[in-house]
Amino acid sequence: MKTRNFKSPAKMNLYLRVLDKRNDGFHNLDSSFQLIDLFDQIEITNIDTNEIEIECNPNIIKTKNNIVYTAVNILRERYKIDKGIRIKIKKNIPIGAGLGGGSSNAATVLIALNQIWDLKIQIHDLMKIGRTLGADVPFFINGENAHVSGIGDVLTKKESDKAKYILICPDISISTKDMFLYLDRKEDYSDDKKEFIQNSFLQPVCEKYNDIGRFYENNKKSFDICLTGTGSTMFIRYKDSVELKKIFKIIPANWRFFLAEPLQYSPLKGV
């Protein structure tokens, strides 16, 4: 039973604008995706049965409806694979936090199984498969920082950001679908001359989640607090240890934080 290990990276939205709602129910976006050095660890082992076994620590993947199981099943059905696989996921990327952990895990598994099962799927075809799983999955398969448009499926390569970040995670899992519905009820998309904001979801998240709203209002004058994705993770750029110590003092004791730096490429690039 040969076992292989893979790093599954997180991403941040350096900015995210929802431009309008399309007739098909999706939204046109304008965003900048930045890979960072925060990783889930994924261990993949061939097994003698034809079962799909998924273990997760912490135990958050419990049903066959999860994105990793679906990714494996798509490959097995499309390419007539009658082999079993055991996947162990050690989660470090917070869940429902706007960091793309689930999409990254699905992309990692697609890339890994393409190699392990010797399927020889070209990257553009693998990205098409990923698109059926979620809008962010093709980005992680491509493995390069990108300006993102369309519904999140049009990627234009960009250079890496150069900053250092502290990610502030209130351990609140936010549903992307729910936040788009919330935004649609509030937003008038007809005005295309709006002042640029870092994230279209910042105000809605602050309104809906009181702890996040209080934190932002209490500290926005002292720090440039940004939101990634549809939340709940916020991030602040910092230059040195002096600035970092000031930021440490404002983080609530029951919230997590991570120090992160940008990646130019995903560790999966070229796997």
Helical proportion? 25-40%
**Distance linking N and C termini:** 20 Å
CATH architecture of the largest domain: 2-Layer Sandwich
Instruction: Label the overall shape.
Output: globular
Overall number of domains: 2
Poorly predicted runs: none
Strand content: 25-35%
The pLDDT mean sits at 93
* CATH secondary-structure class of the largest domain: Alpha Beta
Structural class: alpha+beta
What is the H/E order?
Answer: EEEHEHHHEEEHHHEEHE
CATH topology of the largest domain, by name, is Ribosomal Protein S5, domain 2
Q: What's the β-strand tally? A: 10
Number of helical stretches of at least 4 residues: 8
Using the CA coordinates, give the radius of gyration. 19 Å
Largest sheet: 6 strands, mixed
Describe the structure.
The chain is α+β, with helices and mostly antiparallel strands and 271 residues long. The protein folds into two domains: 3-157, Ribosomal Protein S5, domain 2; 164-260, GHMP kinase, C-terminal domain (Alpha-Beta Plaits). The protein is 29% helix and 29% strand. The chain has helices at residues 67-78, 101-116, 123-131, 137-142, 176-186, 202-208, 210-219, 241-248; strands at 3-21, 27-47, 52-57, 84-90, 146-149, 154-157, 164-169, 226-227, 234-238, 256-260. The strands form two sheets. Strands 1, 2, 3, 4, 5 and 6 form a six-stranded mixed beta sheet that branches. Strands 8-9-7-10 form a four-stranded antiparallel beta sheet, covered by helices on one side. Helix 1 (67-78) packs parallel to helix 2 (101-116) and helix 6 packs across helix 7 (210-219). The model has no long low-confidence stretch (mean pLDDT 93).
